Amino acid sequence: MKLNKLKIGKLIAKVPIIQGGMAVRVSTAPLAAAVANEGAIGLIAGSGLKVEELKAEIRKARELSKGIIGVNIMVAVQEFKELVNAAISEGIDLIVAGAGFSRDLFTLGKESGTEVVPIVSSVKLAKISEKMGASAIIVEGKEAGGHLGTDKAMKPLVEKIVKAVKIPVIAAGGIINGKDIAEIIKLGADGVQMGSRFVASEECEVDDSFKQLYINAKQEDSVLINSPVGLPGRALKNDFYNRLENEEVTTGKSCDYLCLKKCSHSFCIMKSLIKAQEGNMEEGLVFAGEKAHLIEKVLPVKDIITNLVSEARKYLGGESEDE
Question: What span is annotated as the signal peptide, if there is one (predicted)?
Answer without folding.
Answer: none
